[in-house]
Amino acid sequence: MTIKSRLYWLLQLFGWNIYLLIVGFSLYSSYGYTNSLLIFLIGVLSFNILLSHSYRLIIKKNKWMGNSFGILSIQIIGASILLGALFSICTNILSFFLFEKPLSIIDLNSFLIGIFLYFIWNIIYFGYSYFDRSKNQEIQQLKLTAEKNEMELQNLRSQLNPHFMFNSMNSIRALIDENPEKAKVAVTNLSSILRSALINTRDRLIPLKQEIDTVKDYLSLEKIRYEERLNFTFDLSPSSLAIKIPPMIVQTIVENAIKHGISKKIKGGKITITSNVSNNILTLKITNPGQLSSKPKTSDRPSLGIQNTRRRLLMEYGNKASFQLGNLDENHVISTLTIPKL
Q1: Interatomic CA distance for residues 208 and 282, integer angstroms
Q2: What CATH number does domain 227-340 carry, 3.40.190.10, 3.30.470.20, 3.40.50.300, 3.30.565.10?
Q3: How high is the pLDDT of residue 108?
Q4: What pLDDT, on a 0 to 100 scale, did the predictor assign at position 62?
């Protein structure tokens, strides 16, 4: 038996027994205890439980819950009148046989009591049913939203490998003519990077340490291409390395730093990556040479990786995470990631 079924029967027995206790106390006060009184109360209780349960089966079979409010209201009123009449008939027949009262199929007093009781029964039953239905619809909507978000996250993650592959192959292509030996080393490095990246992107979140390992491999690959034009340093808080973050999210920022910073400087420059944890918030900062224009051109719009980063943070953490890109000073750009510890 389900929880809903248990609750239904609990309310059925509780409600009708409360009514019978009130009636029984009233009759006992007036006439005292007799076996006929006990039989009468048991008979009324049994009949109304059977009647109300049969009515519920009719409701479910004919799917009344799917009707409009207007139609349902008419059905409830009509049903309350009919059930009130049956209630009155049952009460009067039992009174005739047990208390030798004059037989009256329907009397106004018991008829109105029956209508009132079954109208209350309808209000409770349909009120709970609508509440439960609304709650289930809300849960279903939340599930659909979660599934949609997961699908979008998977789509965003799937964009990272081709994007990363494209940038890496461009770096190797530039080396093939300039320095074939370095190109061979670069291919080996790329193989190692892709292996790590493919493994990491299978998971929704990975430890920062795994992400940094991939970033280090990538920077080593780019170092072959840029030589002394590219330098990099890491200043990572040990407490930050176990915190989980979306895979490839630091990688894409570093790619952007090389593409828009290092590659455009004749003398190159240094990329610095730092991390710290405060109040269960991980802060990652990536600095690189360059300058963001206060009036960006159309061609300066955020790259795929940067757009992807913002969307992934929003999908994964809502407003609890952020990504900001701005000028640190007149010669450097800083990217700042803040990610909550989950």
Answers
A1: 10
A2: 3.30.565.10
A3: 87
A4: 92
Residues of the chain with CATH 3.30.565.10: 227-340
Distance CA 51, CA 122 (A): 13
Q: pLDDT (tens digit, 9 = 90+) per residue, 7-23?
A: 889 999 999 999 989 98
**256: amino acid identity, one letter:** N
Give the distance, in angstroms, between the CA of residue 284 and the centroid of all CA atoms in the same chain: 27
CA–CA gap between residue 47 and residue 109 (Å, rounded): 18
What is the b/e burial string over 133-143, where b = at least 16 CB atoms within 10 angstroms of the residue's CB?
eeeeeeeeeee
User: Residue 309 pLDDT > 70, yes or no?
Assistant: yes
pTM of the model: 0.54
* Main-chain dihedrals φ then ψ at residue 308, nearest 5 degrees: -60, -45
Q: What three-state secondary structure class fits 307? A: helix
For residues 254 and 102, give the distance between their C-alpha atoms in angstroms, rounded to a whole number.
Answer: 95
DSSP letters spanning 182-194: HHHHHHHHHHHHH
CA distance 42 to 35: 11
CA distance 229 to 223: 8
Strand-pair partners of 230: 269
- Burial of 158 (C-beta count, 10 Å sphere; 0-12/13-18/19+): exposed
Residue 15 CA to residue 53 CA, distance in Å, equals 13
